[in-house]
Amino acid sequence: MVMKRISTWLVPALLAVQQLLAWPGLPLLEGESVTAVQVCTVLAVTAVTSVALLWRRSAPMAVLTVVVPALALGMWGLPADATMAISNAEFIALFSVAVWRTQRTAVLTALVLIVWECLAYAVFQPFGPEYPLVVAVIVVFDVTVVALGRARHRWHADRARAAIELAEAEDRRLRAADTERHRLARELHDVTAHHLTSIVVIASAAQRIGGSRPELMAEARDFAARTGRETLAALHRLVALLQLPDQRPDAHGLEELAEGFRRLGQRVTVTGTTALPPGVAEAAYGIAREALTNTLRYAPGAAVAVRLGDGPGGVELTVTDDGPAAADRPPQGQLGSGRGLTGMRERAEALGGSLEAGPRDGGGWRVRAVLPAAGCPGPRRPRAERVIDAAVLLLALFVPASAVLLLITDPELGPGTPPGSRWVPLIALTLIAHAVPLMWRRDRPWIVLAVVVLTTWVWPALVATHVLPEHFGWFALAGLGVEVLAVHAVARYGRDTVLTWLAMVAVLFSTIPAATLMLILEPPEDFAGEPPGALFLFMTVMCGLSMSQPLFAAWLTGFLVRRRRDRARARQDHAVAAATAWALADAAAERARVAAGLHAAVLRDTALVAEAADRGDLDQVLSRARAALDGMRGLLNNLREAPAQADRTPQPTLAALPALAERWRANGRTVTIETTGAGRTLSPDVDLSAYRVVELLLAGDTGPVTVGVDLSGDPLRITVTPMPSDPGGEVAAGLRARLAAVGGSLATTPAGRPEIRLPATPAAAPARPGGGAGQERDGENEEEVTSSQPG
Q1: What chemistry does it catalyse, as a reaction equation (predicted)?
Q2: Which CATH superfamily is domain 653-783 in?
Q3: What is the tens place of the pLDDT at every residue in 639-675?
Q4: Which residue of 141, 243, 597, 645 sits 20 to 30 Å from the alpha carbon of 357, by its own alpha carbon?
């Protein structure tokens, strides 16, 4: 906020100082005649314009309507070019309109301003043959300013969207466990509660009236055996689904999703997967997952076909099955509450799409979703970047165009010089060919630089082959601005950021020999008879001094802008990825807890219901069904009450690691905690971060794991053996965000094991005589956390 306030007044202040130093400051120092009226006029124009710019972000249109008339009055009452410095306020105001207002407003404002500037130049300046070039420059400058402003507008929009995504990710993280509990509660209620209740009701009725109607006893036993087996199978499928790994919401994940259902006995084929925008991909993935879950419930073992492709209304997703075998067909009304179809339809309609579901002709079921192909290639307005690229090309051609205009307007460049106009087409085409590659500077910066460097040698080649007279070869100097822009493009957009400085070297190593060759082909009188080595040394010094500064400035600005934007994006992306990873971890923990509860409280008694029914023991059927129902109700009540308990849970620290391990052990997982230097006091952020890091890594796998925490030195060290697999990259992203927040790192121990390091207070660390292990590890190689494997 402080930096924003400083930048608000800093630009107007610098502009005012620059104006007053340039005029009337410089003329007064040189002793030129400046009247009091002129001084008062320039002071008034500078003050009004500078103060108006303070509101350029909140009211840019109003600022522009103040700045333009003020500058016009200054042009009327002051010498030509007296207000050149403060006139930049007009471009700043136009830029602000493009940033903070709509594209339509920015374009219309630029058109009006172009017309006004062209008229103003014709009124206040001598009208001559150069007027068309002036008009072209005005158009190029104003279009460039608007394009840059729209690019900045999109940057702000992207940051706002990223902030919204982060807020949504944080909200999902906070609600992940609660959402998963509610979903699992609905699933458990749909899959088993009604059927266990039915067994209890029918078995109780048979016991009450079985003496008068003995046939009810046999019917109750058959119903209990059949329903018990079906409920047990549904519970086993539910447990298997709970143990499936979380999938990323991407259309390319359909194959992995199908593979998970194949392991559950479904025969699933997937065809036509294609790249989709994130929102469409997430909806398609969610619909396919719900549809496949329904096939597992209603058509176990059936052949299922998943197809994703383009249709007349957009992206079309179909999931069809051929129905269950007769032996596997569930009874009428079995399973489900209808929420699955509703949820799929809501996903599709949220994007403006539609969903149909129903039985197929000849048997089976079909789900068809049509989603809008948002983000797919199609006709759209020119992007601001392309407008900027075109404007940059025109600006790069400004100096060459001026040189060509000189040839046209002054055909005799000197005594004995042939008319220059005859060489205009060749010179113009050469300069244009040198600059045109800048149109691709964003996509292929290194290739653009290579083409620009190579075309520098066209001029010496034309002169050496006598295609172009020697004295025209120096028109190459008019195109040197292209090299500067190419270096900037490499620094801004090129791969291998640390090597982009080589672009400056490449330009110098090409330009200096080319200029030396030109000097050899047409040596000035002062260099007549000089050896090539001396000429090369002279050009090395001259070109090195004259070109190194603009080249370095171009590279540095591109590099700094790129680093700033990359860091902003990385912070947002890492934070979103971390929140997503923790949400997945919380949801996975809930699923593991529910799966363990099903094993402990429900599955065993449900299996005994069918066994007792097969033996004809109705009393045992009733007892086991009630026990299973009680276990299910207890599990459901636990799921519904868990959020209130979680709200009272304090922020965890390393002291809570044993409790974390105990929760995992209760779910059937082997977790061992080994702590060295326990009892040490840490700062709250490090203490919390250490706990969250361990929690994140434990959620990645289901096998045995050993966690080592060394608190005896600085930094404190955490090892998790084995490190979890991370095919989606969420765990690595979460680690990056958490470690970056406290200045931590991921390193490798001498034994080759990954080790997480978090900074601790040096004063709190106990001394180690003789250096100890803390110093032995100083030379270890720290690694970057990769996206594929945290370790």
Answers
A1: ATP + protein L-histidine = ADP + protein N-phospho-L-histidine
A2: Histidine kinase-like ATPase, C-terminal domain (3.30.565.10)
A3: 655 544 444 344 577 888 888 887 777 666 788 888 8
A4: 243
